[in-house]
Amino acid sequence: MKVTVVKNILDANDRIAAENRSLFDSKGIYVINVMSSPGAGKTSLVERTIQALGSRYRIGVIEGDIQDTFDADRVAALGTPVVQINTGGACHIDANMVREALPGLDLDRMDLLINENVGNLVCPAEFAIGENCKVMLLSVPEGADKPAKYPSMFKESAALVINKIDLMPYVDFDMARAQRAALTINQDLRIFEVSCRTSEGLDAWFQWLGERIDGFKARRVGRAA
Amino acid sequence: MKVTVVKNILDANDRIAAENRSLFDSKGIYVINVMSSPGAGKTSLVERTIQALGSRYRIGVIEGDIQDTFDADRVAALGTPVVQINTGGACHIDANMVREALPGLDLDRMDLLINENVGNLVCPAEFAIGENCKVMLLSVPEGADKPAKYPSMFKESAALVINKIDLMPYVDFDMARAQRAALTINQDLRIFEVSCRTSEGLDAWFQWLGERIDGFKARRVGRAA
Q1: pLDDT digit string, tens, across residues A148-204
Q2: Which chain B residues are within 8 Å of A2, Cβ to Cβ?
Q3: Phi/psi at B74 (nearest 5 deg)?
Q4: Quick check: A6 contacting B, CB < 8 Å?
Q5: Are A52 and A206 spatial neighbours (Cβ–Cβ below 8 Å)?
Q6: Which of B46, B147, B159, B211 is the S-S candidate for B181 at Cβ 3.0 to 4.6 Å?
Q7: ipTM attached to this prediction
């Protein structure tokens, strides 16, 4: 009975996610869903990505938080259109929350929509929002055992950004073990080692994301021809 | 309707938590529920606490994880009785999971039962398990904005252990801001600044926990007299 209720909620979410997906496709907007533990550096990655790709792509952001507007304020400070979702206690954003946030953005002037999820290494993976791909961060201080302990998010993601590598000298983090564990769960996972603080390693992430956006746009033009 | 279902689940959980509570009381066991983000250092705090208090109190541990037995293995290596709960995807432990784990422990030979929750800064706060108090960890690399962004766990806890202070020189963490925000949410919160890595600050935590256990035992004897 409990399982059925959960299944119905997820089915309803998937339907709305598919509708979001169609809308984004029709507008030519590439959409990513950024997920991680609290404090792994999602907002910092969003900031760096806007700074690096903001001249090439028109970017919009949806910030998901339980309450407050700290992260949205940081993004808005860069001059980027941003809408805040406050989940009111919920530990993830879902497709309906994203749908209700969309009127706050100009979808006719957007190439990339970044959704920053609530900080949580478990629940966000279950809720599609209409994204092209999920991207997750793991930060070095969290430890190399996290992929094996919290596998679902690693399984669902196209890219894993391992952040805060500038802290490697000060913590016990076995990089090889973390990556091996992540690839065991998801052999297609593209992994980046970065520091949003020092900018080390970020260029590879920018290039990967740019290629994904360009590929999406090219396929769309191909279909229209 | 969705809200009603959630309320029924929480009501059922509270009933079982109260039954657990009665059982622990009858056995004279002080029970703590340790919560934090993934990788904040819960298992390290459990290890240090066992090493410091294990000669004074008979300690048992319940380890809650989505899957695997990494943390339980670490605790078992100290010679401490431990039972693993695998939640099978659920992002928290609940009262019924704890109840089902109890036959694996000798409750007649226990003074302190430590429950290590699933790493999650949101959901565990909602599920009582029959504990005397909730204890939460916040690790320095997570950032000082976390109390304001994820208030429920700070509100529910009796103690806040701020871990990984050895990383303070390498990250931007405003200790005063974090503590001010936490105390705004919960003015009774007892705060400890520690490093489980270097052991700095842990003595105050051990002393506080010891006093809580002793006070609980003394009140119990008082009632029986």
Answers
A1: 999 999 999 999 999 999 999 999 999 999 999 999 999 999 999 999 999 999 999
A2: 9
A3: -65, -40
A4: no
A5: yes
A6: B147
A7: 0.90
